[in-house]
Specification:
The protein is mainly β and 84 residues long. The protein has a single domain, classed as Roll (SH3 type barrels), CATH 2.30.30. The protein contains 1 helix and 7 strands, in the order H-E-E-E-E-E-E-E. Strand 6 and strand 7 form a beta hairpin.
Length: 84
Amino acid sequence: MPKITSRNPRDILNEIKWRGLDVSRCEVFYVHRGAPNDTKVVRGDEIEKIASSFFILREGTMIPYHRIFRITYEEKVFYDRVNR
């Protein structure tokens, strides 16, 4: 299991990418109003670009980092925001 040292969502995603880990094993949970439980989940391989204020999915959707509340890798939680 990889050890991730970063603390915020953008840095965690970059660290997974920079270490050459299999991003398809990563899941990003974020607030999406109107979705069941106001939550959507994307796999890391659906991410096209990690920008400064948001990440961009391959289909073009831009998701701001402040909407992310959990990031997992192989079901291990690397980021979990307590207050949603």
